[in-house]
Amino acid sequence: MTGRHRHGPPHWARYPPRPGRWSPSGPPRYGAPFWQRRFLRFAVAATVIWILAGIAFGFLFDERRDGNGGGRPTPGIIPLVVGVAVVATVLAYRRIARPVSRLLGGAARIGDGDYSARVRPDGPRSVQALGHAFNDMATRLEQSEVARRRFLADVAHELRTPLTVLQAGIEAQLDGVHPRDDEHLDTLLEQTRTVNRLVDDLRTLALGDAGQLTVTLEPTSLIEVVDDAVTSMQPTARGRSVTIETRADQPVEQDADGTRLVQVLTNLLTNAVRHTPRGGTVTVSLADDGAGAVITVDDTGPGIEGDPEVLFDRFHRATDSGGSGLGLTIARQLVTAHGGTITAANRPAAAEDPGGARFTVVLPAGDIVA
């Protein structure tokens, strides 16, 4: 037997869909007019059933009266049942069919990519709740679409600058404008490092969004994590005349991914050193509050303007920032993968303390499931 059907093609191939009811290349289009027509047909059928049932009941009622006493009165119950059926059908149609049709029409618009679709919640309470849920869903989808477009635009902008510098530098050397020496090659190499860092950051963000950002938990000395991060940042801090101090009450050891935590603290220290004026100080403190480890990074900079939570948004950065605006976003994803939290706030100024920004990382103790 060949690959053909034994009794011919399947039923869906023998009977193609009618025009207007099905989309040309996919599932049916559940638009509001289609479902309104279906509900109207159902309402008409229900009305006919009501009328036939009323007529039958009326004649049965009349026959019983004939058996009891003679005369055959006018069956007034029949028009009453017919009238009740018509009124009930009209009310049901107005109360259920219209809001449901609007919901289906809005769903069709969402399916076509129009995330601005909203419906007016009315009808029964359950239908109203469905309308509110639909509007909330549409709002979240619209916000996600806006964030996606902004994210793509920001990525394109971040990649355009180093790629433009690379293209211009290579063309200048090929045309003989710039000599092919180590100085110009170092400039091009630095731009490739910038692109590589951005690609790595984007990959980390993509893994976090997909829920695939894993951490390797093992007994880790958090003091060593702090020392490694501070050591890697010392050359940058000295170049900006900023002092980094470390404070630790006692050795703290718990299950964590040391490499990921060094990345978190490096991002926080980079941000703190960048916003600390010359002669300022960045302080890294480590403590154990009994429920877990608490790491704070304080600086003596101007502090945070506006809502501190905005700092963790993707590509959010100050006008004088040289980063990609992804460091704090990645830091939050890595801390969350450890089951912890990271927050930002302003330190209150005191007599000998000008204040500044404070980032606090809380890592819970015990076994953590990433």
Detailed description of the structure:
The chain has helices at 11-14, 32-69, 77-111, 125-174, 182-209, 222-239, 258-274, 327-337; strands at 218-221, 243-248, 253-256, 281-288, 292-299, 341-347, 356-364. With 370 residues, the protein is an alpha+beta fold. It folds into three domains: 18-114, no CATH class; 153-209; 218-364, Heat Shock Protein 90, CATH 3.30.565. The longest helix is centred in the middle third of the chain and has 50 residues, at 125-174. The radius of gyration is 35 Å and the shape is elongated. The model is unreliable at 1-7 and 9-32 (pLDDT under 50).
Share of β-strand residues:
5-15%
CATH level-3 fold name of the largest domain: Heat Shock Protein 90
Q: How many domains is the backbone divided into?
A: 3
Whole-Å distance between the termini? 53 Å
